[in-house]
């Protein structure tokens, strides 16, 4: 590969009628598979509905920062190498870093090419229908790698359309900054990484914030002199295969721990927010017009999040002791605020709330894939991304192989495995054609 090559999207070129491998999705996961296939001279195309890496600039808010330390940022042939490995890149810095990676190779990306149908042939291979700027087209291939992201469809509750239309509703991926919102208080629903950080962003901007929290756990940013995620990596947690992970499937289904890399990194302490004026509620369960109902779960949710925080600290303590590491003193989080009651209702108008930000996650959508590769919840049935459907693989899914899957830390390993699998399964004549023999 030529490290000085400039990335060239091939949207202006017609799609071939047949290609050995099609990668669907031009984010970091799909392009990582392309990197390995390109390195091996395997003929393939990457079909991207918009533009490569668009999600980083288009779906993150202005003050977004990585939650994971910069040293986690590893893509094929391109690991973070600047002078702040323990810092946290901002959104714009991530975009610049990714652009630098794309400048090191020539992925055969067809932009503005959305796959609308994928059919698996009984005798092997696939037929794809794609919508391009010049119309619909079809192509066939032997292998397909789906890299469209684990959960592309934003979730809003079924009662959202019944709420007062005077209140603006948007999903977390549409949020950019406090100034874009109408004057008035804001309700953020969801306390995962996005919800907790957006609530903080609004709080720091001086907005009156109401936050409905769910079951998301939390983690210390720094503990005993190091970033907690650096400790966890050293302990092997990000490398543990999903089937061996403590807590089993239930642990893998939980929302990620909330914490932030903003301003050099710090804890996200919802109790401290409440002490300083933020209004907290339990799980939002229903609403109509301006009236909302909450489950009485606030106290339990705060206690459980803190219990996870302290249990992770205890795990790190045991690691430090077992390895004889010299570190700072052990400590435990002590609550700085307690709710006097678990509120069960809220009137949007009375509270002056003019905007609701939904941050309750995403759901899968593989309705365009005509193959028996999904469970009852619509999630791919796969082992390290490889399905039982001959020639069909996935990459970039959370927990695809380890906790590191779906993160920068695990993409290189996962993409290499998929590229190895795809290469081994390609017919010999396809390999010769790809290599120009």
UniProtKB/TrEMBL annotation:
UniProt keyword Oxidoreductase present: yes
One Pfam short name: Pyr_redox_3
SUPFAM superfamilies per UniProt: FAD/NAD(P)-binding domain
Keywords: Oxidoreductase
GO molecular function, one term: monooxygenase activity
UniProt-listed InterPro entries: Auxin_biosynth/cation_transpt (IPR050982), CHP04046_FMN-dependent (IPR024000), FAD/NAD-bd_sf (IPR036188)
Organism domain of life: Bacteria
Gene3D superfamilies per record: FAD/NAD(P)-binding domain
Protein name: Putative flavoprotein involved in K+ transport
Organism the protein comes from: Williamsia sterculiae
């Amino acid at each position: 590969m030529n490290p000085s090559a400039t990335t060239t999207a091939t949207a202006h070129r017609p799609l071939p009628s047949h290609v050995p491998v099609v990668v669907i999705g031009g984010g970091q996961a799909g392009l990582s598979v392309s990197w390995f296939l390109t390195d091996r001279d395997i003929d393939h195309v990457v079909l991207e509905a918009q533009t490569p890496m668009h999600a980083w600039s288009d779906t993150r808010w202005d003050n977004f920062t990585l939650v994971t330390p910069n040293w986690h940022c590893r893509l094929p042939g391109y690991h973070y190498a600047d002078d702040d490995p323990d810092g946290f890149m901002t959104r714009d810095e991530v975009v610049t870093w990714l652009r630098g990676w794309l400048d090191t190779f020539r992925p055969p990306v067809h932009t503005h090419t959305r796959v609308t149908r994928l059919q698996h042939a009984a005798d092997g291979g696939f037929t794809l229908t794609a919508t391009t700027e010049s119309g619909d087209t079809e192509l066939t291939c032997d292998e397909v790698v789906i890299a469209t992201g684990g959960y592309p469809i934003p979730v809003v509750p079924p009662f959202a359309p019944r709420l007062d239309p005077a209140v603006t509703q948007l999903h977390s991926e549409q949020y950019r900054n406090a100034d874009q919102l109408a004057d008035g208080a804001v309700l953020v629903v969801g306390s995962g990484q996005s919800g907790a950080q957006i609530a903080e962003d609004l709080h720091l901007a001086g907005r009156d914030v109401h936050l409905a929290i769910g079951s998301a756990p939390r983690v210390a940013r720094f503990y005993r002199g190091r970033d907690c995620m650096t400790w966890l990596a050293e302990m092997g947690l990000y490398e543990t295969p999903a089937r061996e992970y403590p807590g089993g499937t239930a642990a893998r289904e939980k929302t990620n721990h909330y914490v932030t890399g903003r301003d050099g990194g710090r804890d996200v302490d919802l109790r401290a927010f409440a002490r300083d004026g933020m209004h907290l509620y339990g799980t939002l369960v229903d609403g109509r017009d301006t009236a909302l109902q909450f489950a009485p779960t606030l106290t339990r949710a705060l206690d459980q999040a803190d219990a996870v925080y302290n249990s992770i600290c205890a795990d790190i303590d045991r690691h430090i002791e077992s390895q004889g590491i010299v570190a700072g003193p052990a400590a435990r989080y002590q609550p700085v605020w307690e709710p006097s009651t678990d509120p069960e209702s809220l009137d949007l108008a009375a509270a002056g709330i003019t905007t609701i930000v939904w941050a309750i996650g995403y759901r899968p959508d593989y309705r365009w894939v005509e193959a028996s590769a999904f469970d009852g919840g619509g999630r791919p049935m796969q082992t390290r991304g490889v399905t039982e459907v001959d020639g069909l693989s996935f990459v970039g899914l959370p927990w695809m192989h380890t906790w590191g899957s779906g993160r920068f830390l695990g993409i290189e390993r996962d993409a290499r495995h998929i590229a190895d699998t795809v290469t081994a399964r390609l017919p010999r004549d396809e390999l010769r054609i790809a290599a120009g023999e």
